[in-house]
Amino acid sequence: MSLLHIAQNFTVYGGLVLLVAGVVGNTISIYIFSSVGTYRTAPCGFYFMVESIFNILYILINLTSRIVSVGFAYDLTATSVVWCKTRNFFVATLGLVTFTCSCLATIDQFFATSRSVSLRQCSNLKWAHRIVLIAIIVWCLHGIPILMYYDIIPTLKSCGSTSKALTTYIPIFVCVLLCGIPISFMIIFGFLTYRNIQHIRALAEQRADRQFTQMCLIKVVLIIITNTPFGSYTAYGLITSGMTKDLNRQMQEYLAASILSVLNYTYYVGSFYMFLISSKRFRQTVKTRIFCWHGLNQINPSATFT
Fold first, then answer.
1. Of 177, 207, 33, 2, whose CA–CA distance to 98 is shortest?
2. Does the keyword Transmembrane helix apply (predicted)?
3. Is 201 domain-assigned?
4. Neighbours of 198 (CB within 10 A)
5. Is the pLDDT of residue 119 over 80?
6. How confident is the model at residue 169 (pLDDT cuts 50, 70, 90)?
C-alpha cells in the first residue's frame, strides 16, 4: 500500500472514530456543565461548556468536510465559493475560541487557588460571561480577511488565499495563535495553579474546587500531546517552503501531516474523556445523569471536594 493510501485511510477511519467520539463526548459535556448547579455556577464550568459547544461545531464543520474530501474525493470548497470562505472562517474562528476558553479556565483556576483575596475575586461568573463574549467578537473580526480573500483559485481548482500577505500569515497564525500561545499560557498558569495548591492545606477553605483544578491540569497535558507536534510540523513546513522536494519526500510529508492533523483533532474530542479520567465527581455525575446509575455510596456533587 502506498504512502498516499495509508494517509488517506488513516484520515478517513481515524477521523470517523474521532467524529463519533467527539460528538458524543462534547454533547454530554454540554449537558453536564449546563444542567448541574455546581458546574453551571462556576466560571471554570462555564468556560468548559462554551469550549464544548465550539468543539462540537469545529468537529462537525471541519472534520466532517475533511473526511468527505479525502475519503470520497468530493471537496465542496473547490466548487462553492461560499463554502470555501465560510469553512475556512469557521475553522480559524472556532479553534481560537476553543483555545481561548481552555486558557481562561486555567487562568481562572490560578485565581481560584490563590492565597490573595483580590485574585480569588477575579474568579467571577459575570466576568467570565463578558470575557467570552469579547473573545468571540474579537476572533470573528480576526477572521474577516478570510471571508474577503479566500476564493477558488482557477489555476489550481482549489480553495485558497488570493492575498500574498494572508497566505504568509496563515502558517504563522497556526504556529503562534493556535499552538504557541495556548500551550504557553496553559503550561505557565497550570504550573502556577499547581504551585498554589501545594501551599494550601485545605483547598476547600479557599473556596476553590479541586475537581476543576484537576480538570485544568490534565488539559495542559492534553494540549501538549496533541498540539505541540502539529505546531512543530507547521513550523517545519514554513521553514522548508522554499525547498525543492522530490515526490517521495512529498508523500512522506503528506503522511506525517495526515497523522498529526488527526492527532490535533484529538484535542477537540478528548476533553470529555480527560474529565472522566481526572475527576471522580464528574464520573459520578455522568453515571447518574446520563446512564441513570445510582450506587449505594452515591457522591453528592454539591458537597464533595475531590
1. 177
2. yes
3. yes
4. 8
5. yes
6. very high
Q: Three-state SS for 154?
A: coil
pLDDT for 54-82, tens place per residue? 999 999 999 999 999 888 888 888 888 99
Please tell me the predicted confidence (pLDDT) of residue 299. Answer: 46
The pLDDT score that the predictor gives to residue 1 is 61
226: helix, coil or strand? helix
- The number of CA neighbours under 13 Å toward the Cβ of 183 is 21
In this predicted structure, what is the pLDDT of residue 74?
85
Q: Does the residue 294 lie in any domain?
A: no
Contacts with 175 (C-beta within 8 Å, 6 or more apart), sequence order: 231, 234, 235, 238
Residues in the chain: 306
The per-residue b/e assignment along 98-123, b for 16 or more CB within 10 angstroms, e otherwise, is bbbbbbbbbbbbbbbbbeeeeebeeb
Q: Which domain holds residue 275?
A: 3-288
DSSP-assigned beta bridge partners for residue 158: 153
* Three-class secondary structure of residue 163 per DSSP: coil
**End-to-end CA separation in angstroms for the chain:** 49
Q: In which residue are the cell numbers 497564525 written?
A: 173
Q: How many domains does the chain have?
A: 1
